[in-house]
Specification:
It is a single chain. Helices cover 54% and strands 8% of the residues. By secondary structure, it is of the alpha/beta class. It is extended.
C-alpha cells in the first residue's frame, strides 16, 4: 500500500522541535541586528566638528577605512569645556547686545553658541542627507530657539544634544498667546492648534448665531422645539420645528448649508442640533434675561412680590413669582415695571410651605427680603391669612412689606357673592347655561343657531371668573330675538322628545318678562364690574387708581340702586318687542306664596307682596345691589388703610403744613424697622432702620409746592417730574416715598397672565417637560421685549469657544 502524506502538526497543542529551533534562530538573528545600537552613545569619533555635519573631503577619501581612535564621554566633555572657555570672553559682548535686541524685537534675536561661533570663522557648515550626500550649507544655531532649528539635522548634532542638552535661551521677553502662555521666541508650541481652535470657534459662532435666532423665534411664539424624531438632514416632517427651521434656513443660508453637509458626510462628530444643545441655548438666553431683570431690581432697591398658584396639565401645583419695581431711569427708562421671574413647583399649598419656597427662591436670586415693600396675592386663606398666611409670615420678618389684596379678585368674589344671594339670580344663570348646552351638544343644532345668529355666539358660564360671564349675557342681551327664533326652529325640526321639550321650555323662558328684566339688570351690573376690573389689569396701575376705581364703582352702585330700576324696565320693554311679546304679558306674573308650617304659635304669618313688580325689586334688584355694596366695602378695607397712609402724596398741594407734618410722621413710623440686638451677655440693644425722615419729608413737600406745575397731580406724574434732569436729588425723601408708594401692587394680573403662557407651553403633548426647560421657555416668551434688546454675542462667543475645543485634531 502506498504511503500517503499527512500533517503531523494538526491537533498539536505545543510547538514541535523543528518550530522551536526556527524560533530560537530568529531570536538570535534579531539580537545580532540590534547589537551595538547604543555604542554611538558610549564611543565617539574624535572631536572634529561636533556641532555640524562632518565634511566629506575628497582628498581624505583614502582615510575612510582607517580606524578612528575612540574617546570617552568624559574626555569629550572636557574638550568642549576648554573650547567654551576660550571663546566665552569674545562672545560675552555679543550675547549681551543680542539679549537687549531680543527684548525689543523678538524676530531679530540671533544668539550663537560658542562652538558655532568658532566654526563660522572657518566657513559654512553643511547638513547631509541620510545617504551621506551633502546638501546646501546651513548654519545651525545650537544656542538659539529650538523653534528655529531645521527639521533635518545630522547624527553628530543629535549626539551633542543628547550629551549636553540644549542650553537656556537668554531671552526674557517672549510672545504670548491669548491665555498668556509662552514657549518660544517666535511662536507658541500650540500655535497651530490655537489657530485651528480659533477657526472652528468662528465657525461655531456663526452657527450658534443662527440657532439662537431659531430658538428665540420658537420660544416667543410658544411653539414646541422637538418632534418625534431627532434625525438631522433627512427633511422629515416629524423631526420638530427646530430641526425643520434649520433645514429650511440651510436652503438659503451658506453657513447652515455647509453645516448640514458636514453632518450628512459624518465630517463632524458633534453637530450640536440635539435636545441637549437646545437646552443649553435656552438656559443661556433665559439666564441673560433673568440677570438683566435682577440687575434692574437691585438698582431700584425696593421691590414687591406677586404670587399666585395654579395646577398645570400634569397635576402639579405651580406657583408663579412676579416682581414689581420702580426704575429711576438708570438701567431702564423711568416707570413702573412688573417682570416674570419663574415658576416654582410646590408640594403643599399651605402658607408655611409657600413662604419657605419663596424665601429659598429669593435667596437663590440674591434678593434681600428686607427690601420688599409690597406683596400682592389672591384672596385665598393660605395667602392672606392673618395668622398663618404668607402675608402674615412675611410681615413678621419685614413689617414694611405692605400687603395689598388683588382688586380684580375682590371684584370677582363680589360677583360670586351676589349671584347666589337670591333664587331669581340662580335661575337666570341656569337658563343661560341650558341654552349653551342645547346648541353646543349637537352640530346640527349648532348649524341652526349660526343660521339665525350670525354675530356673537353663546358662551358657557365661567366657574371662577365671574366678571367673564358678561360674554354669556351679552350674546343673548343683544340677540334675544335671533336666539328665540333658533330655539323655535330647533323644536320644530327635531324628532327627539327630550330636545323638543327642552327647546320649547327655553323659548318660553325667553318670552318671560322677568327673564328679560333680569337680562338687562345683570348685563348692566356685569358690564360695569368687568370694565373696572379690566382697567386695573395694567402693569403700571397703582393703588391710587385702584382706590379711584373702587370709589367710582361704589358711587355707581348706590346711584343705580336708587334710580336704576326704571331704566331696567325700559330696556326690558325693548327686548319684549324683539321677541314679539304682547303688551298684556309685559308684566311680572303673580306667584303663589308658598305657605310654611309654623313651628311656634308666636311666629307671624308670611306677608305676600301685592305687586309682583315690587316683589322683584325688593327681593332681587335691591337685595343684589345691597349685597354688592356691603361686599365691596369690606373687601377694600385694606386698600383704604394704605391710601390713608400714602394718600397725602396725591393732594399735598392743598394741605396745610401742619397737616402735612402729621401725615409724614405717620409715614415715617410705618417705614421704620426695629430689631433687637445682643450687645453683651446681659445687655440687649436695638437696631433701627428707616426709609424716610418725616421732618425732612414735610419740608421737601412744602418747598415743592412752589416749583410743581398745576398739571402734575398724580403720583406717577410727580415721579416723572422728579426724574427729569435728576430733580429728585433735591427731594430725596419725596422720591423714596413715591417709589415705595408706586411699588405696591394693586392686582396680581401679571401672575394670571403667566398662567396663560403656562397652558400654551405645557400642553398635552409636552406634559413631561422639565421644570428648568419650562422656566426658560416661559422667560423667553413672557419677557420677549427684553430678549429682543439683549445682545448675546459675547455669551455665544464663550459658548462657541468651549464647543470648538471639543474638536478632534
Amino acid at each position: 500500500m502506498a504511503s500517503t502524506s499527512r500533517d503531523r502538526g494538526r491537533g498539536r497543542k505545543y510547538l514541535n522541535g523543528n518550530q522551536k529551533r526556527a524560533l530560537a534562530k530568529a531570536k538570535v538573528l534579531e539580537n545580532e541586528k540590534h547589537r551595538g545600537a547604543i555604542k554611538k552613545f558610549l564611543v565617539t569619533p574624535p572631536l572634529k566638528r561636533p556641532c555640524i555635519e562632518d565634511e566629506e573631503d575628497k582628498n581624505d577619501s583614502e582615510n575612510d577605512n582607517t580606524a578612528i581612535s575612540p574617546i570617552t564621554v568624559d574626555e569629550y566633555n572636557e574638550e568642549i569645556d576648554i573650547q567654551f572657555e576660550k571663546v566665552q570672553v569674545d562672545t560675552q559682548t555679543q550675547l549681551n547686545q543680542t539679549e537687549d535686541d531680543l527684548n525689543t524685537t523678538e524676530d531679530s534675536a540671533k544668539v550663537r553658541s560658542p562652538l558655532i561661533a568658532k566654526e563660522e570663522s572657518e566657513g559654512q557648515a553643511q547638513t547631509s542627507n541620510s545617504d551621506g550626500s551633502s546638501t546646501s550649507t546651513v548654519v545651525i544655531n545650537i544656542n538659539d530657539d529650538p523653534a528655529s532649528w531645521p527639521s533635518n539635522i545630522n547624527r553628530n548634532i543629535r549626539d551633542y544634544l543628547t550629551m549636553k542638552g540644549p542650553p537656556d535661551i537668554p531671552v526674557n521677553k517672549f510672545p504670548r498667546n491669548e491665555k498668556g502662555l509662552c514657549f518660544s521666541k517666535f511662536h507658541c508650541i500650540d500655535k497651530e492648534r490655537e489657530l485651528t481652535i480659533n477657526k472652528h470657534a468662528k465657525y461655531w459662532q456663526q452657527v450658534f448665531k443662527r440657532l439662537v435666532a431659531i430658538v428665540q423665534f420658537l420660544a416667543e411664539r410658544n411653539l414646541a422645539l422637538r418632534g418625534t424624531e431627532e434625525k438631522v438632514g433627512n427633511e422629515s416632517v416629524h423631526n420638530g420645528n427646530f430641526l425643520g427651521l434649520v433645514e429650511l434656513f440651510a436652503k438659503f443660508d451658506s453657513v447652515l448649508e455647509e453645516h448640514l453637509r458636514k453632518v450628512k458626510a459624518n465630517e463632524i462628530h458633534n453637530h450640536y442640533l440635539g435636545k441637549d444643545t437646545q437646552n443649553e441655548l435656552l438656559d443661556i438666553m433665559a439666564t441673560a434675561v433673568l440677570n438683566e431683570i435682577l440687575n434692574r431690581v437691585k438698582a431700584a432697591k425696593y421691590y414687591a412680590i406677586i404670587l399666585d398658584c395654579t395646577p398645570d396639565l400634569s397635576h402639579q401645583e405651580q406657583m408663579s413669582l412676579t416682581i414689581r419695581y420702580v426704575s429711576d431711569g438708570n438701567l431702564a427708562p423711568s416707570g413702573v415695571y412688573e417682570h416674570f421671574i419663574q415658576f416654582m413647583q410646590v408640594e403643599s399649598s399651605t402658607g408655611e410651605n409657600l413662604y419657605k419656597t419663596l424665601l429659598n427662591t429669593l435667596e437663590e436670586l440674591k434678593l434681600d427680603v428686607k427690601d420688599i415693600r409690597g406683596q400682592g396675592y389672591d384672596n385665598g386663606s393660605n395667602m392672606k391669612g392673618h395668622t398663618s398666611g404668607v402675608q402674615a409670615r412675611l410681615l413678621q420678618d419685614n413689617p414694611r412689606a405692605f400687603f395689598v389684596p388683588c382688586a380684580c379678585h375682590n371684584y370677582n368674589l363680589l360677583l360670586g357673592d351676589v349671584a347666589k344671594c337670591c333664587p331669581d339670580a340662580i335661575t337666570f344663570f341656569g337658563i343661560l347655561q341650558r341654552i349653551y348646552i342645547m346648541f353646543s351638544a349637537s352640530t346640527k343644532r349648532w348649524a341652526v343657531f349660526k343660521k339665525h345668529v350670525p354675530g356673537l355666539s353663546v358662551k358657557p358660564l365661567s366657574d371662577t371668573r365671574w366678571e367673564c360671564r358678561i360674554d354669556s349675557v351679552k350674546a343673548i342681551r343683544y340677540q334675544v330675538g335671533e336666539v328665540y327664533d333658533a330655539l323655535v326652529e330647533t323644536s320644530e325640526i327635531t324628532d327627539e322628545p327630550k330636545v323638543k321639550a327642552e327647546t320649547e321650555g327655553l323659548a318660553n323662558q325667553l318670552k318671560d318678562y322677568k327673564f328679560l328684566v333680569s337680562l338687562i339688570f345683570w348685563h348692566d351690573l356685569l358690564f360695569k364690574v368687568n370694565y373696572v376690573s379690566k382697567e386695573l389689569q395694567g402693569k403700571t396701575k397703582d393703588i391710587d387708581e385702584g382706590m379711584e376705581s373702587f370709589e367710582k364703582l361704589l358711587s355707581w352702585l348706590r346711584k343705580y340702586r336708587e334710580s336704576g330700576f326704571n331704566d331696567v324696565l325700559i330696556g326690558a320693554n325693548d327686548l319684549a318687542e324683539a321677541v314679539e311679546l304682547p303688551l298684556e304679558f309685559r308684566k311680572f306674573q303673580d306667584k303663589r306664596l308658598q305657605r310654611r308650617k309654623r313651628m311656634f304659635s308666636y311666629e307671624a304669618k308670611d306677608q305676600a307682596f301685592d305687586d309682583p313688580k315690587e316683589a322683584y325689586r325688593v327681593q332681587c334688584f335691591t337685595l343684589v345691589l345691597d349685597k354688592a355694596i356691603q361686599s365691596l366695602e369690606s373687601r377694600f378695607m385694606q386698600l383704604k388703610s394704605h391710601i390713608k397712609l400714602f394718600g397725602f402724596l396725591n393732594n399735598f398741594q392743598g394741605l396745610q403744613k401742619a397737616e402735612i407734618r402729621k401725615h409724614t410722621v405717620d409715614l415715617e413710623a410705618a417705614l421704620i424697622d426695629t430689631k433687637l440686638k445682643q450687645n453683651t451677655d446681659v445687655e440687649v440693644g436695638t437696631v433701627t432702620s428707616k426709609d424716610v425722615d418725616g421732618y425732612l419729608l414735610a419740608e421737601e413737600l412744602e418747598a415743592l409746592k412752589t416749583f410743581l406745575p398745576t398739571s402734575v397731580a398724580k403720583p406717577q406724574a410727580l415721579f416723572e417730574y422728579l426724574v427729569v434732569n435728576n430733580r429728585f436729588t433735591a427731594f430725596p425723601n419725596v422720591f423714596v416715598a413715591l417709589r415705595i408708594y408706586l411699588t405696591m401692587p394693586v392686582t396680581v394680573a401679571s401672575g394670571e397672565r403667566s398662567f396663560s403662557k403656562l397652558k400654551l407651553i405645557k400642553t398635552y403633548l409636552r406634559s413631561t417637560i422639565s421644570q428648568e426647560r419650562l422656566n426658560n421657555l416661559a422667560m423667553l416668551s413672557i419677557e420677549s421685549d427684553i430678549t429682543k434688546t439683549l445682545d448675546f454675542k459675547m455669551i455665544l462667543k464663550d459658548f462657541a469657544n468651549k464647543k470648538a475645543r471639543k474638536v478632534c485634531f
